[in-house]
Amino acid sequence: MKRNLAIVLTLSFALGIAGTTFAAGPFADVPTKHWAYDAVGSLAKAGIIDGYGDGTFRGDHIMTRYEMAMIVGKAMEKAEKADMQQKELIKKLSTEFASELQNLGVKVDSVKTKVDKLPQFSGEIKDRYRNGDITSPAGIKQATWIQHKQILAFDVSGKINDEWKYMFELRNDNKTNQGAYAGYLGNDESTSNFGSYVRAVNVQGPIGCFNVTLGRQDYSLATGFINGASTLQGAKVSFGNTVKVNLVYGQDFRSGKIFSSDNKQFFLATSDEFWDSKSDGSTIVTGGDVSIPVGPGTLKATYFQTKNNDINVTTKRWEAGYAVPFAHDYIFTGAYAKSNANEYNKGYILQVSYKGANLNKPGSYGAWAHYLKADPSVIWDSFSGVADWTYAASGSKGYEIGFAYVPAKNIKWDIYYDDIKATVPGDQSKTKFYQTQLHFYF
Questions:
Q1: Residue 150: is its pLDDT beyond 80?
Q2: Better pLDDT: 253 or 410
Q3: Are strands 283-294 and 266-270 parallel, antiparallel or unpaired?
Q4: What is the phi/psi pair of residue 222, to 5°?
Q5: Is the pLDDT of residue 267 over 80?
Q6: Which is more confidently placed, 322 or 191?
Q7: d(CA 200, CA 286)
Q8: Is the dihedral of CA 323, 325, 329, 334 positive or negative?
Q9: Can you tell me the mean pLDDT for 351-373?
Q10: How far apart are CA 415 and CA 423, in angstroms?
Q11: What secondary structure does DSSP assign to 359-384, as a single string?
Q12: Is the dihedral of CA 278, 249, 197, 218 positive or negative?
């Protein structure tokens, strides 16, 4: 006991924190194989801490918990100089040695709060390849659709205070199209386009019993069948625990105008391609969804209205769906949707998914298959690959099968295949294509 106390007092002077009053408690050694040794060693190697004051960290020296706590305290003081991974390591160490740090007089909570408020950086690098054949509404087979796209997304997020937080995403797309898809008119040509843009910038926090997100944000509703991945400049309000409700209002920034294949009427729709060339942010969206536990599954319903005064088009859509687990690791999802268009106004989807690719579990995987039928006025921006079909104005009916796999932590590979035909009578357009992507998250 005296030996350990002498070591701690000597070390405290070397670290410049002498005079600290120690509370009574055991001076237990930290086991030689404890993860804290490697953690502190990596911080010392990175220059975040100075170890024993002489620029060294004696990784082969068995330390008491108080010795370790004093070094952790030094790391906490320099947390602002650490990168994101090092900050997480410091937080983990401060939790492990919290009681010792308190006894040493280190204000753990205030330092943690300071670390929490520092910006966090993350993002994704994605490489995508698509290949498929397209047949026009007249039944003429056009050139092969080929697309190669690289995407870099860089995210910054952090805390404004204990309740509110912010996030910002800058994205760069570099895309090459070849064949029928390049000009939307069947010309066998190639196009390349790229650009950087702010995909998201928003603040999130509570107002009373509501959780509010203000600014540019990605959003989806209900099962994602009619709207699974669009971008909103506006507000999202969420509330409820058992019964959950989301309300959205604002401008949709990925919208464009499409005509039905027989030219009888036209609708608003959205996709990555409209984002590139036809988006003007003039479409106002109003909607919401509700999720209610029913039996072993969840009932989901949504109302979604799109309005564009420039072209005098307003479309109202409704969706009701049910998701339920069954057997082992399976989930069945079914949804029915309808719009207020005069015709071509119904759709449904049936999907079975198995397991799921978990980025934190190398070797994990997931698979899915679905069949859908969606008239042209129904889908706004579905999670399904059908949303990327050139002839969305022809409606869509067909199937998709997909597979995702995690070969290493934070790396995911996925592939899916779609076989889609038109729903509008007399329209002979169809497509068969596959897409494969490799995602790197950081």
A1: yes
A2: 410
A3: unpaired
A4: 50, -130
A5: no
A6: 322
A7: 19
A8: negative
A9: 95
A10: 25
A11: TTSTT-EEEEEEEEEE-TTT-SB-SS
A12: negative
Write down the pLDDT at residue 360. 87
Instruction: Determine how β-strand 189-207 pairs with β-strand 297-308.
Output: unpaired
Structure tokens at 329: 């690791």
- DSSP, residue by residue, 134-171: EE-TTS-B-PPEEEEEEEEEEEEEEESSSS-EEEEEEE
Where, residue-wise, is CATH 2.40.160.180 in the chain? Answer: 121-441
CA distance 381 to 258: 13
Q: Give the pLDDT score at 325.
A: 95
- Residue 235: count other Cβ atoms within 10 Å of its Cβ: 15
How sure is the predictor about 312, in pLDDT bands with cuts at 50, 70 and 90?
A: confident
Of 103-112, 121-130, 351-360, give the lowest mean pLDDT range.
Answer: 103-112
Based on the number of CB atoms within 10 Å of its own CB, is 55 exposed (0-12), middle (13-18) or buried (19 or more)? exposed
d(CA 400, CA 361): 26
What confidence category does residue 255 fall into, taking pLDDT thresholds of 50, 70 and 90?
A: low
CA pseudo-torsion sign 222, 430, 148, 273: negative
User: Which residue type occupies 344?
Assistant: Y
| Beta strand 346-355 pairing with 411-421 | unpaired
Give the length of the chain. Answer: 442
d(CA 111, CA 381): 44
More confident residue, 264 or 239: 239
DSSP 82: S
Given a contact cutoff of 8 angstroms between Cβ atoms, the answer to whether 215 and 202 are in contact is yes
Residue type, 39: A
Check if the beta carbon of residue 405 is closer than 8 Å to that of residue 412: yes
39 near 87, Cβ under 8 Å? no
For 121-441, CATH gives 2.40.160.180
The percentage of residues in the chain with a pLDDT greater than 90, rounded to a whole number, is: 37
Q: How far apart are alpha carbons 392 and 178 in whole angstroms?
A: 19
Ramachandran class of 278: left when φ > 0, alpha when ψ lies in -120 to 50, beta otherwise? alpha
Is residue 73 over pLDDT 60?
yes
What angle in degrees, to the nearest 10, is found between the helix axes of 2-14 and 65-77? Answer: 20
Looking at residue 125, its amino acid is I
- Which pLDDT score is estimated for 90? 86
